[in-house]
Write a structure and sequence with these properties.
InterPro entries: Extradiol_RC_dioxygenase, Glyas_Bleomycin-R_OHBP_Dase, Glyas_Fos-R_dOase_dom, VOC_core. This protein is of the alpha+beta class and about 325 residues long. The protein contains 5 helices and 16 strands. Strand 7 and strand 8 (about 125-130) form a beta hairpin. The longest helix is centred in the last third of the chain and has 13 residues, at about 225-235. The relative contact order is 0.22.
Length: about 325
């Protein structure tokens, strides 16, 4: 049976590119690992953040577009993105969020304490302590002993929670581990991005737009395994897309019965395919078929950079 190790990446939509970089790189200390464009809409950036190498399970990506309308988080969406922080680092993060005047709450779910807050576009986030062996390794504004390791997981808001659970368990290979307080928890076998909670209580209908997650991608080993996943999806009655070349991974997309858009993405070839590890995210990288439009796109896209913040960005 095919099994995913967990989350490969999560992609969301926001309004302002520089504000997005300031928050995820400047405040949260993630590395801007790729500055490219939305392959389907080249006039829009596609920004990738993660650990030093862009390891699957650490990567969050964004489509920043000032003209898009505000979305609404609800049914058919990812309702909460969870980041894993090292054991004993919660105090550091509470102080850091307070420094940048970011309001947070302490919440408890499955007997775990987490720090919950939103990014500047309203995307709900949480930090939860996890004993992760693989560390970030990125020399950012945050010391390695406090740095975000990658994803802990995500909370899904489904129109059919138990149907979504069936997809995760019977198709993707996760296992149900707990059921309490209106949530069902499943686990994958990976170290990062391996906790998935499904909200069991009713919610409003989600509306796609700025401040919402576009899709959640699951890990596959390589392109050959993505092909196997596509064949399995067809066999199980889903209608996956054709396999798409995203330069840094190959992918196939499908919508599960609860309305959430899922992707299966390959771990390889990775983010160093078109630029060295030491300079990831510093230059605008374009796919080969758009290279002849570089000058036009560089004039169209706003100038952005990862920078050290000295004051509140809110």
């Amino acid at each position: 049976m095919l099994k995913t190790l967990g989350i490969h990446h999560i992609t969301a939509m926001v309004n302002d590119a520089q504000r997005n970089i300031d928050f995820y790189a400047g405040v949260l200390g993630l590395r801007l690992i790729k500055k490219t464009i939305n392959f389907d809409r080249p006039e829009v950036y596609h920004l990738y953040f993660g650990n030093k190498t862009g390891q699957p399970g650490t990567v969050i990506t964004f489509f920043p577009w000032p003209k898009q309308l505000k979305g609404r988080i609800g049914i058919g969406q990812v309702g909460l993105i969870s980041f894993a922080i090292p054991l004993g680092s919660s105090s550091f993060w509470k102080q850091r969020l307070a420094k940048f005047k970011i309001q947070y709450e302490i919440t408890n779910r499955f007997c775990e304490e987490s720090i919950t807050f939103t990014d500047p576009d309203g995307i709900p986030l949480e930090l939860v302590e996890r004993n992760i062996v693989s560390k970030n390794g990125w020399d950012s504004v945050i010391k390695k002993e406090y740095a975000i390791s990658g994803f802990s997981g995500a909370t899904l808001i489904s129109a059919k929670p138990h149907k979504t659970a069936d997809v995760l368990e019977k198709l993707l290979g996760l296992k149900i581990s707990s059921d309490e307080a209106g949530f069902l928890r499943l686990n994958s076998e990976g170290e990062l991005g391996n906790f998935i909670d499904i909200k069991l209580t009713p919610s409003v209908r989600g509306l796609m737009g700025a401040g919402t997650v576009h899709h959640l991608a699951w890990r596959a080993k390589d392109e050959a395994e993505v092909l196997k996943w596509r064949e399995l999806l067809i066999e199980k009655g889903y209608h996956p897309t054709e396999i798409r070349d995203r330069n840094y991974f190959t992918a196939v997309y499908f919508q599960e019965e609860g309305g959430i858009l899922f992707e299966v993405a390959s771990d390889s070839p990775g983010f160093t395919i078109d630029e060295p590890l030491d300079t990831l995210g510093e230059n605008l990288m374009l796919p080969s078929w758009l290279e002849d439009k570089r000058n036009e796109l560089e004039q169209l896209l706003p100038k952005v950079e990862a920078r050290i913040l000295k004051e509140d960005i809110q």
